[in-house]
Specification:
The chain contains 9 helices and 7 strands, in the order αβαβαβαααβαββαβα.
Length: about 190
Amino acid sequence: MGRGISEELIAEDVRGCSAIIARLGAFGKRVIEAEPGLRVIARHGAGYDNIDVEAAKQAGIWVTFDPVSNGNAVAEHCIALLLACGKNLPVMDRAVRSGNFAVRNQRPTMELSGKVLGIAGFGRIGRLVAQKAGDGLGMEIAAYDPYVKEAKGARMTETLEELLEVSDFVSIHMPSTEETRGMFGWNSLKE
C-alpha cells in the first residue's frame, strides 16, 4: 500500500484492507470511513498524532503503536543532522561539487567535542541521542523535560529557556500535543 501520504490517496488505497501499518500521512476520518472492513491501524513508531483516534474508536477500529520500533534509527538520524549542521555539510558539498575547493577557508565549521547538545524531551529517543552524542562525539549534554528530574549523563535544566541559553545545538524529542504545540518558534531558536 502507499502511493502517497495525502489523506485522499490513503483513503483510496485503504479500500479492501482490514489492517494498515501506518508510518507517514494523515489517517483521519476520511480514511477511516473509506473502508468499512478496516479493523486495525498499527502505527510504526512512537507517536500516533497523525491518526484520528476518536474517529477510529467510533468506527470500532483498534489503534496500536510501537514505541520502540525505530528509536535507534531516529537517534542515528539526529546525529547525522547534528554533524551536517556542525560541519556545514550542505554548503560545503554544493561548493566542492561546483569546483570551489577554497570553501574550506570561507565557511566555518565547528568541532562538536566539548559543545553542549540541548535535548528537549528526555524520553527514550532523547536518551539515545544523548548517549550517542556524549559517548560518540564527546559532547556535553543538557536536557529539559518537565517529567524527568534527573538523568545519568545529562545536566537537567529547570526551564526550556535555560536549556536554549546553555546549548550550542538543540534536538527536540517531544510528542506533538496540546501542551507542546507552539513551544518552539523561530524567535526561541534563532538566538
